[in-house]
Amino acid sequence: MARSSSQPRSMHGLVFASSVGTVIEWYDFFLYGSLAIFFARLFYPPGDGVAATLISVATFATGFAVRPLGSLVFGHLGDRFGRKVTFLATLLIMGCSTALIGFLPTFATVGYAAPVLLILLRIIQGLALGGEYGGAATYVAEHAPPHERGKWASYIQAMASGGFILSLGMVLGLRLGLGEGEFENWGWRLPFLVSIVLVGVSFRIRMRLHESPVFEEMREKQQLSNSPIRDAFSIPGNARRIVMFLFGVACAQAVTFYTAQFYALYFLQSVMKVAFLPATLAVAVGALCGLPFFVFFGALSDRIGRKRLSLIGMALAVVLYLPLFMVLRAAVHPNGIDFLPVALTVFALVTIAAFIYGPYGAFIVETFPANVRYTSISIPYHIGNGIFGGFLPLISLSLVSRTGNVFAGLLYPIAICAVSFVVTWLFVPETLPRNADATRTARPLSGFAPPSDQTA
User: Fold this and answer.
1) Number of folded domains that form the chain
2) Does the residue 440 lie in any domain?
3) Residue 282: its pLDDT value, please?
4) Residue 446: phi, psi to the nearest 5?
5) What is the pLDDT of residues 332-372, one digit of tens each?
6) Per-residue 3-state assignment (H helix, E strand, C coil) for the chain
7) Which residue segment(s) compose the domain that 155 sits in?
8) Vertex 72, ends 71 and 75: CA angle to 5°?
9) Residue 209: phi, psi to the nearest 5?
10) What torsion, rounded to 10 degrees, do the Cα atoms 170, 172, 176, 182 define?
């Protein structure tokens, strides 16, 4: 099937339609993260504030823990029945579970049933998100011109950060507009309920998309996998690629992304005891300023390669995390914070993450064969983000609580990035050719031959 027959008129329209759903799904998922410290008072028994905070952050992590399972379920469906139908389903499931959080009773009303219901809905959210990224990244990359694949796929990565910023902006606006009292009484429900409208608009936009041309070609030639999960691990060399990509690029991407945004926020609020408003506003501004760099580094990877930029990001994390968080600590005073240093530090953290996450979409899509691509992408991405990244705030805050050292939480992301650097350097091959015409000759995605396992 000709590519043009199944494409929208331009990549701009296709990426917009794909990424608008992605930003809404991440908005839905990150809303709880934006309010985790606040929810400790609403959904958990009063008394021990530190314990309630850690349990609330653990509930945030629960949604990540089930993402690998969601990746298997929806990866299987995406490789069997299509990219489009699968990420439409994940969008609806995510939207409904998010809206239901807005209707939940609190601990003061129903006791321990409140956290149980909250955890159940977080699990459903995690399952849905397990299918979102693989579908969106695969769909965009399979439409993109080979010489611009990094650029166009990077918008999907940027939208994850966009969802985080949107969730912070929504919460900030409501807390300022309603006041703390009204927000705590009922206003916190509004960001979750508005998800119904956002998902409805996004679903209508995504319905206009055609199926991926690569998937249509495989369906016409009867080359679809009947058992994508089995085949993902039985195709020669593919299981090794999954494992190496997981412990290489995927784990580093996960911990740098969540350190830059959630842990920086929790460090300010929970460790340094900064009030919600200045901490959230500074983090939101820093994250917003860093947002364009996901696309910048994605496009740059079309010229100089995916692996080189990823390694630079990992090295910067190992070297700069402690100094950057020392700047954060120095910017906190008994009467508030120095806004500019905090925002600039978060900007630097997001930029470090963008070195890895910007090229990530093209890097991971190009690594795996087409007939099991959705499944093969989803496994390392969601184990990396669901386990290694999702539990970062809990692990890091626990290290701080146990040791009494405010910087102890950085041991975890620094160690992960150090290990990932070595694994990526030695075992993850570059997927962009190194010849002078690389930007015009990047290998097509329609074939089934994966990249060689030689180190680039």
Assistant:
1) 1
2) no
3) 94
4) -80, -20
5) 998 889 999 999 999 999 999 999 999 999 999 999 988 88
6) CCHHHHCCCCHHHHHHHHHHHHHHHHHHHHHHHHHHHHHHHHHCCCCCHHHHHHHHHHHHHHHHHCHHHHHHHHHHHHHHHCHHHHHHHHHHHHHHHHHHHCCCCCHHHHCCHHHHHHHHHHHHHHHHHHHHHHHHHHHHHHHCCHHHHHHHHHHHHHHHHHHHHHHHHHHHHHHHHHCHHHHHHCHHHHHHHCHHHHHHHHHHHHHCCCCCHHHHHHHHCCCCCCCHHHHHHHCCCHHHHHHHHHHHHHHHHHHHHHHHHHHHHHHHHHHCCCCHHHHHHHHHHHHHHHCHHHHHHHHHHHHHCHHHHHHHHHHHHHHHHHHHHHHHHHCEECCEECHHHHHHHHHHHHHHHHHHHCCHHHHHHHHCCHHHHHHHHHHHHHHHHHHHHCCHHHHHHHHHHHHCCCCHHHHHHHHHHHHHHHHHHHHCCCCCCCCCCHHHHCCCCCCCCCCCCCCC
7) 9-433
8) 70
9) -75, 150
10) 70
Tokens 């219901």 appear where? 117
What is the CB neighbour count within 10 angstroms for residue 231?
A: 17
Query: Would you say residue 443 lies in a domain?
Result: no
- Residue 328 resides in a domain: yes
Q: In the prediction, which pLDDT does 122 show?
A: 83
Burial of 284 (0-12, 13-18, 19+ CB in 10 A): buried
Specify if 438 maps to a domain: no
CA atoms within 13 A on the CB side of 356: 29
pTM confidence score = 0.82
| Residue 334 belongs to domain with CATH number | 1.20.1250.20
Q: Copy the structure tokens of residue 431.
A: 């997927």
Question: Residue 335 has what pLDDT?
Answer: 84
Residue ranges of the chain with per-residue pLDDT less than 70: 1-9, 21, 25, 29, 47-52, 60, 433-456
